[in-house]
Specification:
Strand order of the largest sheet: 6-5-4-7-8
Strand content: 15-25%
Largest sheet: 5 strands, mixed
Number of helices: 9
Helix content: 40-55%
Number of strands: 10
Radius of gyration: 22 Å
Shape: globular
Order of helices and strands: HHEEEHHHEEEHEEEEHHH
Oligomer: single chain
CATH class of the domain at 127-265: Alpha Beta
Distance between the termini: 30 Å
Bound molecules: zinc ion
Length: 280
């Protein structure tokens, strides 16, 4: 979306609502309950009614915005600020929007991204790097998850720049193998370090072990996933205290940012928020 169009969304609730509605219906309305398209009656105040099952709904019934009660221009503005990574307290200070409202919506955005990432999980194939990294310990503050110990993250990186990550309880083969099965295609070429748990990939494809000497890999490399680790740690550092119970949501948010780094994140987020997953 062009910038001037984006800013008009922040100024007018009517324009913003029309934008979200158009993104949702794409010109075709259908009943979210029975899927009927041919007759949808328009009632007052944005209410709709299905001509077949007679149930009432709105354009946002069944989407992740169904229970959001802030004006649409505020919603658009907060989605834009979320994409930029602006902290909630700063938005509150500059606009007067209640900090709880900002935090609630940011949590909703993160959960939507998290759920969508798992629902749309595409198996990665071809040349794949597997690696784990420890997260945490940047801040000893009460809110920081680092204060309560470190978290292990398992990462699967396809050598075209797409990544899938999972927080894991440990790095045993029993933990990693089901995730490798779920998120990669058989017949892939797996690049890993010489950690023994990765022996399990021999049954799924070619296994290339990277042996590091004095921290520097010889011959082959796993630079791709390492690039993601530093990208993720930079974002988490920027966020300062990430609540431990939402760490998995933050992690998927960063995965989403990384995988869509050449896309317009605002439009991508709006599409995720408006998905219904078919008839409800
Ligand atoms: Zn219906």
């Amino acid at each position: 979306m062009r910038e001037n169009r984006l800013f008009s969304l922040f100024e007018s609730g009517t324009i913003a609502r029309a934008y979200f509605r158009a993104m949702k219906t794409k010109g075709k309305r259908r009943c979210p309950y029975c899927g009927f398209r041919r007759k949808v009656y328009r009632l007052a105040a944005g209410k709709l009614k299905c001509g077949r099952c007679r149930r009432g709904f709105t354009d946002f019934t069944g989407t992740r915005l169904a229970r959001v009660h802030v004006p649409f221009n505020t919603l658009a503005y907060l989605a834009h600020q979320f994409v930029l990574g602006t902290p909630a307290f700063r938005i509150h200070r500059e606009t007067g929007i209640n900090v709880k409202t900002v935090e609630r919506l940011f949590r909703l955005f993160r959960k939507a991204i998290y759920d969508d990432s798992l629902a749309e999980l595409n198996k990665l194939g071809g040349k794949i790097e597997l690696d784990e990294s420890m997260f945490g310990g940047y801040h000893a503050g009460k809110r920081g998850w680092g204060a309560e110990g470190k978290t292990i993250v398992f990462g699967i990186y396809k050598r075209n720049g797409r990544v899938t990550v999972f927080p894991v309880a440990d790095r045993q083969a029993d933990t990693l193998e089901p995730l490798i099965k779920k998120a990669t295609r058989k017949g892939s070429v797996y690049y890993t370090d010489d950690y023994e748990a990765y022996a399990c990939v021999n049954a799924r494809g070619k296994h290339v072990t990277i042996i590091k000497e004095k921290g520097k890999p010889i011959v082959e490399h796993i630079n791709g996933i390492e690039g993601f680790w530093s990208y993720a740690k930079t974002w988490l550092y920027h966020y300062r205290g990430v609540p431990r119970k939402y760490f998995h949501h933050y992690l998927k948010e960063i995965e989403w940012r990384f995988n869509n780094r050449n896309e317009k994140l605002f439009n991508n987020l709006v599409e995720i928020l408006l998905k219904t997953g078919g008839v409800i």
